[in-house]
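Lab notebook, bench 4. We co-purified these components, and the gel suggests they stay together. Before we commit to crystallization screens, I want a quick structural picture of the whole thing.
Request: model the full complex, all chains together.
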Amino acid sequence: MKTMEDHLSNLERKSISIIREAKAQFKNIAVLWSTGKDSTATLWLCKKAFFGRIPFPVIHIDTSYQFPEIYEFRDRIAKEWNLNLLIAKNEEALREGMSPEKNRLNCCTALKTEALKSIIRREGFDALILAIRRDEHGIRAKERIFSPRDENFRWRYMDQPAELWDLYVKPSEDFSHMRVHPILHWTELDVWLYVKREGLPVNPLYFARDGKRYRSLGCMPCTVPIPSNASTIDEIIEELKTTKIPERAGRAQDKERAYMMQKLRSLGYM
Amino acid sequence: MIILALDALDLKLVERYNCRSLMQVEYGQTDITEFKLPRTVVLWASFLTGKNMESEIPIKTQWDYRLNPEETFLKLFESYKAIDVPALTYKGENHAEVRRLLKGYFNDEATVEEYDAVVWRNHEENKREFLDSLGKFDLLIGYFDLADSIGHLSFGIPEKMEMVYRELEELACEVRSSTDEFILVISDHGMEAVGRYGDHTMNGFYSTSRKLGLNLPKITDFYDIIVREAEG
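Here is the predicted assembly.
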């Protein structure tokens, strides 16, 4: 009979093998860390993969609009886990006054995408480990574990290499960097069960205060809490077993909105 | 013969909400990968004529495109009624209002609730006309865009989509209990979630009231099936 322990151990085993494969295939690799549950679990997997020490930089994209709890958590864990932390920040856009009030999509592009592009260029990274999951979002369902991106971060999802029998092929064609997704096959519930099993630190924003909690962490102006009374990891796990609220319900919908506008236009609706 | 033409009806949701009347005796997916884009008018025009009509119908003027019934399988029937069928008897004004609100939603000039209300109003109008026409024609074909229109802004909201599928299931149940004629339920394409929104997929849905043994048919394959049924 399969148990939850077997299930989590199998997930962990596969993720660790992906991380080791990425480290072996690429010369200059880094891992992205938002301080959220998924990316913290991914850091933990990186630590486990290399016996306690992450042998590559950890990038945190600082938009300067994040919650104070995110910065406190980041600095505490970076110290405790002895991380080689790199902060990616688009100082120029911030100086010019970029903010979510102007236009959320442009703000995300400038403060997240451009900041990341800039650090990739500066440090010459050829691969990035990201903590995305297929069940998180419809757009991510087509993602592969090894996913090439061009210099404009474009993702040609119809032109991806096959990943049969867990063989992750490094494509021979030209690409700017490879995205590696070691927890792509996990669910939100798997992550919380793993956080519990491993006793991982958790950003306090996830726990309910006054009947609300954050289920997904983003920038302050673009993230709202969901109604919830779950104030412990066990209560979050119980909540997830029955909830019908999508995980990213508290996040601004602008990117989906922009995508859908474009699609509806191409189909002649608008 | 009765044809329920249900825009964007998707196999996954038909199964998820266990819509037995929509499933009928045989059901499955259709394959529309022969088309470059899953465009509503193109797909229904192709269904009606048995030919891929993609190159004939420009995007800009697609909603005004009308076929001559003589070009379609309608010519095989002595009496027929086609309610709101794209490329044929499409109620341009009703749908233009929905598209105006859709555009308004993305320009922050209309709310989802305002948009939904007009979609449901149009659906009720078509439903009344369709149910009043049952048993009066050799061919009755009714087009309902509820799953597509509500789905575009709300496919990621399960409670809303369940309500839509329950409504279409009730409609199919009403039709099935009213007749022994051949019934075809068919959609032009399916739908998948993009956050809270819904995007067209390249697989439609079909079901039949008799076993036909179809295997991933193309939407244009139904022309010959309808011809055979019409000829008895």
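The CA atoms of residues 206 and 214 of chain A lie 5 Å apart. Worth comparing against the SEC data before the next meeting. The interface with chain B takes residues 137-139, 141, 244, 246, 248, 253, 255-257, 259-261, 263-264, 266-270 of chain A (CB under 8 Å).
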